[in-house]
Amino acid sequence: MRVHAVDHPLVAHKLTILRDENTPSPIFRQLVDELVTLLAYEATREVRTESREITTPVAPTVGQKIAEPRPLVVPILRAGLGMLDGLTRLLPTAEVGFLGMQRDEETLEAVTYANRLPDDLSGRHCFLVDPMLATGGTLVAAIDYLFERGARHVTCVCIIAAPEGIDVVNRAVGDRVDVELVVAAIDERLDENAYIVPGLGDAGDRLYGVV
Ligand SMILES: O=P(O)(O)OC[C@H]1O[C@H](OP(=O)(O)OP(=O)(O)O)[C@H](O)[C@@H]1O
Ligand SMILES: O=c1cc[nH]c(=O)[nH]1
Ligand SMILES: [Mg+2]
C-alpha cells in the first residue's frame, strides 16, 4: 500500500483544533469537511481522465475530463459520512456507495450492518472514506467488499492512522489491489482500548453524539 501523509500547514492547523477535546460538534464537523477537501486534492491525483475536444470563445482546444466509468466514493458509516460532502464537492460526477460498519469494542472485530454497493466495480476507481484507521480491521473488511466486486484501484482517505493499523492493511492487501492511503497524520500508537494516541477520541461520537 502506498501511504501519503499530507504535510501542509493548513492541515496541521485544522487537525490541532480537531483533536482538542474542547472543540464542539458543529466546529468538529466543519473541520472534518475542510480537512477532507484538502486531502482530496492529493487523493484524486490518480483519477483517470480522457481527452475531450472543446471550443473556447477564442479557439478549439483539447482538454481533459474525468473518464468513465465514474469514480465511486464509499463512506464507512457513521464517521465516514462526515467526509462524504467534502469529497463529492470536488468529484461531483462520482457515484456514492455505502458501508455501515461498527467495531465491536470487546473483540475489535468490524461488524457490517449495511452494505449498499454496485454489483460490478471492475475498472472503477473507489474512494473509501473514514476518519480513523486504528487496528485496521474495518478498513481491511471494507477493501475486501470492494475487491469481491472487482475493484482493483482503491484510495483510502483517512484523517488519522495508527502505525499498527497501516501494517495490518498492508499485510492484508498485499499486491491483490492497488491501494493507496492518504492521511492527515500518522499518530504514535494504539492504547489498551485500541484508541489512537494522541488521536481525537471517538470520531463518530464527536461528529454525531454518543449512541
Ligand atoms: O481500525 P479499526 O480498529 O477497525 O477502527 C476504526 C473504525 O472505528 C471507528 O468507527 P466505529 O466502529 O466507532 O463506528 P462509528 O463510525 O459508528 O462511530 C472509525 O470510524 C473506523 O470505522
Ligand atoms: O481512536 C479511535 C479508534 C477507533 N475509532 C475512533 O473513532 N477513534
Ligand atoms: Mg465510533
UniProtKB/TrEMBL annotation:
**Which keywords accompany this UniProt record?**
Allosteric enzyme, Glycosyltransferase, GTP-binding, Magnesium, Nucleotide-binding, Transferase
Instruction: Give the co-factor note.
Output: Binds 1 Mg(2+) ion per subunit. The magnesium is bound as Mg-PRPP.
* InterPro entries attached to this UniProt entry: PRTase-like, PRTase_dom, Upp_B, UPRT, UPRTase/APRTase
What's a Gene Ontology MF term here?
glycosyltransferase activity
**Highest taxon, organism lineage:** Bacteria
Is Magnesium set as a keyword in this record?
yes
Catalysed reaction per UniProt? UMP + diphosphate = 5-phospho-alpha-D-ribose 1-diphosphate + uracil
CDD domains given for it?
PRTases_typeI (cd06223)
Task: Write out the residues that bind 5-phospho-alpha-D-ribose 1-diphosphate.
Answer: R78, R103, D130, P131, M132, L133, A134, T135, G136, G137, T138, D202
Q: Where does uracil bind?
A: I196, G201, D202, A203
Q: What is this protein called?
A: Uracil phosphoribosyltransferase
Q: What exactly does this protein do?
A: Catalyzes the conversion of uracil and 5-phospho-alpha-D-ribose 1-diphosphate (PRPP) to UMP and diphosphate.
Keyword Nucleotide-binding in the entry? The reply is yes
Family statement drawn from the similarity comment of this UniProt entry: Belongs to the UPRTase family.
Source organism of this protein record: Paraoerskovia sediminicola
Question: What EC number(s) is this enzyme filed under?
Answer: 2.4.2.9
SUPFAM superfamilies, from UniProt?
PRTase-like
**So which cofactors does this thing need?**
Mg(2+)
Q: In which pathway does it act?
A: Pyrimidine metabolism; UMP biosynthesis via salvage pathway; UMP from uracil: step 1/1
Mechanisms controlling activity: Allosterically activated by GTP.
Name all Phosphoribosyltransferase domain ranges: 6-209
